[in-house]
Design goal:
150 residues, 5-stranded mixed β-sheet, binds FE2/S2 (inorganic) cluster
Amino acid sequence: MPSYDFVINGEPVTVDVPGHTPLLWVLRDTLGITGPKYGCGVGVCRACTSHIDGAAFQPCTTPVADCAGRGVTTIEGLADGDTLHPVQQAWIDEDVAQCGFCQPGQIMAAVALLADHPSPTDADIDALENVCRCGTYVRIRRAIHRAAGA
Ligand code: FES
Ligand code: FES
């Protein structure tokens, strides 16, 4: 079995899995990191959105072999110890979540958006493709504007 080394939430890891295994499977089933959610498995719903080398990506469609030597961040790695990331705090302040299933991916997408657009327009926010079947889009928009102003 091949082995792959990468950094997850600041910690080096080595996994022994076939190289074509989707990273989402490795995160959830091998490493027990369950913040990234399995929704569609084909890169559409974005419930699994995480960051690789600082950019948003979908681990459900990323083979683990493509992650070798790279840095992956999931929702579990966003806070600074006990201090929430400003986007996480804005999510709480705006009471965004309903069932919560899509929310780790929504937050990770929002963090990446704000890195590229520190003062995003409504159109920038509405261009995010993360699906929320509970329809929290209005509160997501408010939370992103709140985080941008924080
Ligand atoms: S589970 Fe990854 S995009 Fe849907
Ligand atoms: S909060 Fe339920 S799917 Fe988004």
